[in-house]
Amino acid sequence: MRIIFFFSCLVLAISAFTQRRLTAEERAAILNQHNMYKRKVANGQQEARDGKLPTAADMRAYEYDVSIEDLAFEWASNCVWKHSSDHGGENIYAVSGEDNVTAIAISSVDSWFSEVKGFNVSNVADFEVDPNVVTGHFTQVIWGKSYRLGCAIAHCSSIENLSSGFDNGYFAVCNYEDRGNYISWPVYTSGDICSKCPEGTTCEDSLCVLPLESTTASVQSTTEEYSVGSTTEESSVQSTTEEYSTQSTTEEGSSSGEEGVSTTLGPDSVQIF
Q: Which residues does the UniProt record annotate as the domain SCP (predicted)?
């Protein structure tokens, strides 16, 4: 079976399928995959483009937030390959030839994280954009101050702005708070593991974790189904600069080919096509 991957930006299509929320198992899979990669980086076990990444002093663990999932679900259900306008940080991914949603949840995070091979160690302390290499999905996944996420995976009869090779495919969206990818900000603070965890958090398995009672939402099972109406909206997938209240976004570049494309977006920071 040939599996086609695509992970990048999105405009507004029609889905003929009834969409559903992620199950507890699927939520746990995507949450655990994010935290596994954060932990690997925090422990100084990850090779980057030009060396091993430093250990992290303040790497926050992700917790799952169903209110953030609401935003991801609303956008994913449109089946349009473009970023939403109502989000914090955002990564998107599309795949055809795979029907196991748990597997798709895991492979989406794997795809985003795989950009580490193009990431320079010096950018840990001072995030900047290399126009020739896409790394923004990776940096959003491991952004030190990002600690809440919510995701959705929609089954799409077609995905607008993608080729027919993605018909009857799946479109995954993850949104993040606090958003990442701010230009000139540190991706995380390097130093002794957990030595600078934020107040109110404790060190647990190399990550800074909030007490259980303070988490915003549990990874609970939700089996509600939602019908998605027909919505279309024209837009072009091209290089753009979006302005925000504090600063303008900067585009990082593009990545395409048989293996696919990924896109991440953190307002006031970076947009990748």
A: 25-184
Nearest to 172 by CA among 90, 256, 230: 90
Length in residues, the chain: 273
Which CATH number does the domain housing residue 230 bear? Answer: 3.40.33.10
Domain carrying residue 102: 4-271
Per-residue pLDDT of the chain (273 residues; tens, 9 = 90+): 444 455 543 333 334 577 999 999 999 999 999 999 999 999 999 999 999 999 999 999 999 999 999 999 999 999 999 999 877 899 999 999 999 999 999 999 999 999 999 999 999 999 999 999 999 999 999 999 999 999 999 999 999 999 888 999 999 999 999 999 999 999 999 999 999 999 999 999 999 999 875 554 445 444 344 333 323 232 222 222 222 222 223 233 333 333 334 454 433 333 233
Q: How many CA atoms lie within 13 A of 23 on its CB side?
A: 6
